[in-house]
Predict the structure.
Amino acid sequence: MLPLYLFIVPGIALVVMFNYLPMLGLQMAFRDYNFREGIWGSPWVGWQNFEEFTASADFWRAMGNTFLLTMLRLLFVFPTTILFALLINEIRSFAFKRFVQSMSYLPHFISWIVVVGFLDAFFSIDSGGANSLLGIFGIEPIAFMGSETWFRPIFILSSMWKEIGWGTILYLAAIAGINPALYEAAELDGAGRFKQMRYITLPSIFPIITIVFILSIPSLLSVGADQIYAMINPANIGVAEVIDTYVLRLGVGQAQYSMTTAIGLVMSFMTTFLLVLSNFISKRIGGEGIW
Amino acid sequence: MVTKLNTFTVFNSLLMILFAFLSAYPMWYILVLSFNEGADAAMGGIYWWPRSFTIGNYIVILQNEIILNAFKISVLRTAIGTIGSLLVTSMVAYALSRKELPGRRQLTIVFLFIMLFNGGLIPFYIQLIRLDLINSFWVFVIPNLFSVWNMLVMKTSFQKNIPENVIESVKIDGAGYARIYFAIILPFSMPLLAALGLFTAVFHWNDWFTGAFFVNDLQLQPLPTYLQRVMSTVEASNMISAGQMSAARDAGMYNPAAVTTKSVRMATIMLTTLPILLVYPFLQRYFVKGVLIGSVKE
């Protein structure tokens, strides 16, 4: 008979190989890594790698872009998602509601590289739909995809397109759990649909709004390399380069392993700090945490 | 009062129709362009319906061996990756859900800690090099075999939804842990496994990142990674010239001169998206449930 602990052996082996050993690999941040001597043998260099990246203007540019883009994303996607959840909830016809929900969840399942393919098709300077439309009004074609001015709006728009519908699921579930007696009572008191939305629905889902907001704080440190990397090009790199793509470009692309590990170490600690903090706050105000 | 309500209803319905439309329209736009002659599409103005219908773009890409190979890699990694991940992850969830597991608390912490802290991309990359996974098919599968989020969902479900007395009674009949796992835990959890499996499969199908950074061999690139290459004009032109060489056989089926880099790209995008669109109706039955299970802890 197989002992029970055998069932976790593959899982343990995997987390050791792909999670714990890379954590030990973080010491590369304090070494001058070379393949021959490896993680344990390469010479120690103290804080040199950290001094190197903090002195780099490219690093600070990437850091600034990361914060700006994640803040913008939070600012635009977060409230719009709540608004759309409220509006979907106001649809009275069940079939119509299901239809809107089905359509709006779809973008979540489309790969970022395909989304950028859509963007490229629609916004490209030659024969893209957007420029054809502008042409009707006599506006000269704009290189949307290769422009610093248009990168941020396109980033925000594509983030909204992909995630708003999907994000409404949590709120709609919370709305579905509201006691119908509340609405009936409000209706007897003469409250219209706006008033019901304002004084019943919104306050009822306020706790979950707070929790979603707090738990999204750690995501301020990471934009998601697969989204940015698909959109980045030499013409927009000034506003598009974020920490994730910077680490990829210098680490995987140019084999600057030690310096990029040092960046990763700082980011990992900051992420962990924010995770613990946001989890603590979320639990403190009476909500659920991640653990 | 009544008129005000109606204004809102009308406005809201229109807004919601627009919302649904905008969510689906990009797919339609690409579909239309992929069935239009590229040279004609370059003149612009096509939004709703092909103006100069052709299947030439698809003939070109479906004759291309690299793209067929990429399709095969995607199918393989999705199938093996999903089944493997469900097995490994549910095995861990099963063991951790049993109170009699020695050191259960400590082991749970070992798994949960990876949600809190990670070594970052570069040490992970170095580890892939040392394990000889770079430029290997298995880089798509092995690092993704265990998912801590799915494990938590499964563990909660095993504890809540599988009656303890059923497990106890088979135990008395002399069933071992493996029997319980295969004969009770897995069959009882099929809806959950299907839901998590679909999410895992979508991840595998959509992931272009692993192929772009951890694999150089063109023969090992999955479809989304190859799509990223086709987004560059050079690769799309290569496809067209390769298509024209073999196109002699299909003379008359399409006009090779009307195929452009852009129209080939549209067809490639559709080929990459189509499987997702096909499973989406099935996915839908599960995913709302999946998200909600994921958000509710024990």
User: Anything to note?
Assistant: The mean pLDDT of chain A is 91.
